[in-house]
Design goal:
Blueprint (H helix, E strand, L loop, with lengths): L1 E2 L5 E2 L1 E3 L11 H7 L11 E3 L21 E5 L2 E4 L8 H15 L4 E5 L4 H12 L6 E5 L10 H19 L3 E5 L5 H7 L6 E4 L3 E2 H4 L15 E3 L4 H13 L6 E3 L6 H7 L5 E4 L2 H4 L3 H19 L12 E2 L8 E9 L2 E2 L6 E5 L8 E4 L2 E4 L13 H11 L4 E7 L2
Parallel strand pairs: 3-4, 3-14, 4-7, 7-8, 8-9, 9-10, 10-13, 13-14, 15-21
Antiparallel strand pairs: 1-2, 5-6, 6-12, 11-12, 16-17, 16-18, 16-21, 18-19, 19-20
């Protein structure tokens, strides 16, 4: 579960543009959604990426095949190139219709071209109080021919300009071909999630094959199961590097098995291409995850990708009482004690672990561990480390 600083939390979102700006494309809005094939309210909606001004791009409603092709096996290649009506349109028409009227949980995806545009777009979004967050799409498309340091600098400055002005939780979307690890590290403490990955350029996925869009002078990016290995590589590298930023993992999730696999390390996931290639599948996977996946993750001690890291020791010797983890890291973001607290009462026999959040107490499903009253603090910490390997925080042993 990905929890944001405004209190909103989610585990499954639509990839940017998968459902357009909130209710899908015309065949989804007027057919698939009314028929119940797609239920957008079950997801957090990440809008199609908006630019400051309208952008024509390559998508034409009368001939979409010129920039989008189905490849079979649930794979898609597209070269839409950010076709969108612009920020002003979304604020004037999209926000009232999709967010205020339909009450959809929405994260707005934007792509500013420079710092001044970023600050301006952030200021506009600050007034849209009902959105849940802002995702900055920084795929470095505008700075391809510059050095690595310049690409990183470009991305960081744009994201920070949005974060300073928008007043909402901010995340960043990056592609497999981007210096995503460097950018994420630079933005640690600024962003609340990193969305990995965008589509993968055709030549990386099919290096010896010509794109079906080549006849129109385009190449395109690939989505679907073919890019799942790329997405897993990014997820593993960011999580294993101990960067304290939660990962929103997308790309190639076309089965429940792949969904469950991502949740082993990701805080949340995005679903994209299945809305086009198998429209019934996203809600089918979502229902199965909510019915079985969460419980399975809890039994395995994963808690749906919620907890990471390890316990850091800061004990005060005591002969008994309770062990408390104060302000631990939730997918890399330290929260104050008043919001999150895990207490482990010490007694002979099994340990009962409770999770307290905003005055509410929840039981946390964990393997049984045994602690004796006569154990010293160091021994207690060692046992807790083994039992709660996904928690990182300052552990203090104190008397009750």
């Amino acid at each position: 579960m990905l929890r944001l600083s405004n209190g909103y939390e989610f585990d499954i979102a639509t990839a940017s543009g998968a459902l357009g700006y909130g209710r899908g494309w015309w065949w989804e809005e007027f057919f698939l959604i009314p028929l119940g094939v797609i239920r957008p309210e079950a997801f957090t909606i990440i809008t199609k990426t908006l630019t400051k001004l309208p952008r024509v791009g390559n998508l034409k409603w009368w001939c979409p095949w010129r920039c989008v092709r189905l490849l079979g096996g649930g794979n898609v290649v597209n070269a839409v190139s950010l076709t969108n009506p612009g920020m002003e349109w979304w604020i004037r028409e999209g926000y009232p219709k999709y967010v205020q009227q339909n009450k959809q949980n929405t994260i707005v995806s934007i792509m500013p071209e420079n710092e001044s545009d970023a600050a301006l777009m952030g200021t506009f979004l600050r007034m849209q109080r009902d959105i849940k967050g802002v995702e900055v799409n920084v795929s470095c498309t505008n700075v391809k021919s510059v050095s690595l340091d310049q690409k990183i600098d470009h991305a960081v400055k744009i994201v920070m300009a949005v974060q300073r002005t928008c007043g909402h939780p901010v995340g960043v979307k990056l592609g497999w071909q981007d210096p995503y690890l460097f950018i994420t590290k630079e933005l640690e403490g600024v962003i609340e999630w990193v969305d990995l990955i965008n589509t993968v350029p055709w030549d990386y996925v099919f290096p010896h094959k010509k794109s079906p869009l080549a006849k129109y002078g385009l190449t395109g990016g690939v989505s679907g199961p073919k890019i799942a290995p790329f997405a897993r590589q990014c997820l593993d590298l960011v999580v294993d590097s101990k960067v304290r930023v939660p990962v929103l993992s997308g790309g190639g999730i076309n089965s429940y098995q792949e969904l469950n696999r991502r949740f082993k390390k990701a805080a949340a996931v995005t679903l994209g291409s299945p809305f086009l290639t198998a429209p019934h599948l996203p809600n089918q996977m979502e229902r199965r995850w909510r019915r079985h996946g969460r419980m399975q993750a809890m039994r395995e001690g994963r808690s749906a990708g919620e907890y990471v890291g390890r316990v850091t020791q800061s004990p005060t010797p005591s002969s008994g009482g309770s062990t408390q983890v104060r302000g631990f890291l939730l997918q890399g973001r330290r929260l104050p004690m008043k919001q999150r607290l895990i207490s482990v009462p010490l007694s002979d026999g099994e340990v009962n672990v409770t999770l307290k959040e905003k005055g509410k107490t929840k039981q946390l499903c964990l393997p049984a561990i045994k602690i004796n009253d006569d154990m010293d603090a160091e021994h207690v910490v060692e046992i807790i480390q083994k039992a709660l390997p996904w928690i990182e925080g300052d552990m203090e042993i104190e008397d009750i």
